[in-house]
Amino acid sequence: MVTKRSSFIIVLTLCLPSLCAYGEDERELAAFFGDEEFISIATGIAQPLSKAPSVASVITAKQISQIGAIDVDEILETVPGLHVSRNTGYTPIYSFRGIHTTTNPQVLMLINGTPITNLFHGDRSLAWGGMPVESISRIEIIRGPGSAVYGADAFAGVINIITKTPSEVSSTSAGLRYGTSNSKNFWIQTGGTVNDLGYMAIIEGRKTNGSSEKITGDSQSILDALSGTNASLAPGSINLEGEAIDTRLELTYHNFTFRAGSQIRNKNGLGAGIAQALDSNGQVASKRYNADLNYNNSNFTENIGIKATASYFQTTQEVDENFVLFPPGSTGSPLNPVPYPAGIIGNPEVYERHYRANLNATFRGIARHELMGGVGYYFGEIYKTKEEKNFGIDPSTGLPIFPGSSLVDVSDTPFIFLDENERENHYVFIQDIWHLADDWELTTGLRYDHYTDFGDTTNPRAALVWSARHNLTIKALYGEAFRAPSFAETGEQANPAFLGNSKLEPETLKSYELAFNYKPSYDLTLDLNLFQYYWKDIIQFVPDSSGTTRTAQNRGEQRGQGFELEATWRVNDYLSALSNYSWQKSEDTQNDTDAANAPEQQLYIRTNASLPNGWHLTLQANRVMDRNRVFDDPRKDIDDYTTVDFTLRKSFLRDQLELSLISKNIFNDDAREPSPNGQPMPSITNDLPLDRRRIYGEIRYRL
Amino acid sequence: MMRLPLHFFDVTKFTNLQGVRLLWLTLFLPGQLFLPCNALASGLFIIYPKVKAPYNKIYEDIIKGINESYPGKTQKLELPHNGDNNDLIEQIEQHQPDVLVALGKGSLKKAQQLASPIPIVVGAITKTEEAIAGVSMSPSAEVVLSHLLGMAPFVKQVHVVSDHQRQTQLDGAEAFLLERGKALKVEQVKSVQEAADRYLKIIHKASTEDAIWLMRGGSLNDPSILMLVLEAAWKKKIIVFSSNPSHVKRGALFSLYPDNRKMGGTLAEIAQQHELKLISPSAGLAPLKSVHLIVNKRTSKHLGIMLNDISGLTIHRLL
């Protein structure tokens, strides 16, 4: 009979390190090279991390596996000073150091160095639909401005997703995941080299019914109260169903790399609705395609390195099912007595293309200097906009579209939400790393950008790095950044509430940082980053004198300061821990109040146990604290929340087969992100509920 | 060049007499023509262990290097971790290789267990119990020191604290340095504590013309020693370089590790020498000559060594 105690011993024995599981050859190689991580670097599987003088975090594929991430946002949430919030469509708001806006154009997101932000709102599209993580080799996140290197929109932060190379995917593997909300994921990847041609291909798919968390009241609830109707779907579930297919291909041949990819999103739910009124019907789609060709030769001549890149990115926002802005039975306005039997429907579609070319050169011919310079060209266009709607003016008659009418196509008329538009940008930049003296290095950079639509901008940066001790590095950084107005901000029209302004200037940011990196032992690393920023000319939709519309203006100002403290501890060969704490205090100087929505404090802890017998257990906790309301929002501050997740993995057959159990928010905390304020009151009063407990089972197999 | 299946006879009886061997081959050649094609002797047979990523990349690169350099046919077999030798025996009988290339210690053991007359060449290994022709993963002292002097020609004395007998390597190092008007100072120790004391004494007396070579050894595997040495050396701007590549990320100036593709090329050359009977089967491991250089950028700047100014050395990885 197996007693409880003997069961415990059996479990314990299974978990104990089994030395014979390690091969003799692996042990010898590990001893020779020092450790496994170094073997990855030595064999070219992993690239050593660039030591750019900025406050950056790098999250590797191994850490992504430990986190148990299903979507890229779960990785980004672990970064100090960055919080992933949600807007009412439940697309992500990457909130860096207190810089938090609804459309979030202040963050530059790149895949392999190519921006994937759009011209329409400067975000990742209403149909972003998340991003799966199997293709990701690492993510580099820079907090603070990076316009001197990256140009426009590298403002509050830069997120660069680097996908796996052929040498990282040296075999064929596949996996399946199933879990809460009928979520299904699959992936197949292959890679290798034939003669000198390296190849990597991956396909990832996802289908989910999405969260079924409920909204108790929405904008239609307020309309119902004012109009005497009973149309609201609240209380009701948010709509986060969706399907996604991601593909990536990478070919390498000597100094050349070619990449192509696609992100197809279909039948994506609209969260809490486009107009903050629940919409169980609307579905948005997006087709995103990218391709880039790179030539990289760090030894083009003895002293010159060259890097040339040409890239293409195409993105769309398309309508799969009618966007029901207000549900059937709504009048749309207390002033309108006639209800719309099918609801108020507006179907905006946007189609964009982006072309980029860039040439960089590094010059090492001057003693104690490393010079880098480059030129580049960008052309982007919204080449097509389409819209059907059942409200507003019918362009064929010039008369209002009456409730009950069928959808009217207003494309290519003055009554469409946005005209087609284009933007060109030429730029030149230079950077010098000057080795002033032993242990002292000064990096200075300057980038000049010319835009065809809003003129010129020049952005400097400077970084002084001091290797103070063998285990202490101190950096002082200064940077400026600009954020180009989005086409919605410059050109939105025929909208009952929001209007664009073609005279907008870019938003600007100045930032000062002081960063300390201290390694008291080889197993413990401590980082402390202090920052202060000044953000001005913030583009806001300001009420017009007419009282019914708002027009984009360079109006807002915000100042902020804070710090991030990080610790990484390798306890022993099997156990590691990581923690970070972030604090920021930002002030809306225009209204003389604390800046809203971004957490003022965040705490993250992760521990990971990896045993040589194939068991891997990760526990992580994330606490989000102190989120203020905007100055005129009557609600009390939003509640703090804590999510705790675990990932349990067991590998078999010398890592060929892996089974995993992943659980998110295991204590079922009622985590919420702030819903926007509104007049006379917020439309969704009780904020935006996040997922409760989720559980996934996963299997992956490598040939 | 062709041979009958293994069990027919012992080829080693005919070794070292190339003429006899050729005559012997001539006599048996007609008979070979009637054997099935797949039983004809051919080129190299490479065996390597089944290991997980990223270790497998090392063997893949070596095999790539062998294939690029070896003009004849090569076959390879990945040996499972706990498998028996039946598959190996069967495949060798089928392919009848001229030379067996064993990568890693486990593969070498299995190759030796066969007790086959086919000569063995070994790679991806640091040492062998008995003398077998092959290439070591450890670079020769001359290669290590030439990299040191390439980066820091001003160094006049190299210090080594050793708890192991490494006389061959140290003799080679001493001769190399003497030729260039430099000196090697070796101190033997018996414990970690003694090693720590010696290092501190060396660093206390040292000037920028001194360098410390962290060789492999029991006491040097202790992280506290490494930390002690690197901290004290940083303060006095003394060069510390290491035979352990992972020490570079901890602050050692540089280290060397195998260029696996070129190591494969060297293994292919040794295998060809075997085929031509130009090398003794017990020639022993040749020290590694084809290396990659890894450098710590932060340390090099601290020491005032401008990497742009280093000529004649290619930095493979910069940490």
Essential attributes:
heterodimer, A: 703 residues, mainly beta, Maltoporin, Chain A, 22-stranded antiparallel barrel, five-stranded mixed β-sheet, 8 helices, 8% helix, 52% strand, disordered N terminus, B: 319 residues, alpha/beta, Rossmann fold, 2 domains, six-stranded parallel β-sheet, four-stranded parallel β-sheet, 10 helices, 13 strands, 39% helix, elongated
Strands, helices and their partners?
The complex is a heterodimer of chains A (703) and B (319).
Chain A: H1 4-15, H2 24-33, H3 36-42, E1 55-60, H4 61-67, H5 72-76, E2 82-86, E3 92-96, E4 107-111, E5 114-115, E6 136-143, H6 147-150, E7 157-163, E8 173-179, E9 183-194, E10 197-208, E11 214-215, H7 219-227, E12 236-237, E13 242-253, E14 256-268, E15 283-297, E16 304-321, E17 324-326, E18 344-363, E19 369-389, E20 393-394, E21 399-400, E22 408-409, E23 421-437, E24 440-451, E25 455-469, E26 472-483, H8 487-491, E27 498-499, E28 507-521, E29 524-543, E30 550-570, E31 575-588, E32 593-594, E33 599-610, E34 615-627, E35 641-652, E36 657-664, E37 672-673, E38 688-689, E39 694-702
Parallel strand pairs in A: 4-7, 27-30
Antiparallel strand pairs in A: 1-6, 2-3, 4-5, 6-7, 8-9, 8-39, 9-10, 10-13, 11-12, 13-14, 14-15, 15-16, 16-18, 17-18, 18-19, 19-22, 19-23, 20-21, 23-24, 24-25, 25-26, 26-28, 28-29, 29-30, 30-31, 31-32, 31-33, 33-34, 34-35, 35-36, 36-39, 37-38
Chain B: H1 18-32, E1 44-49, H2 55-69, E2 74-79, H3 86-95, E3 99-103, H4 105-113, E4 120-125, E5 134-139, H5 141-151, E6 157-162, H6 167-179, E7 183-188, H7 192-205, E8 210-214, H8 223-236, E9 239-242, E10 254-258, H9 260-275, E11 285-288, E12 291-295, H10 297-302, E13 315-318
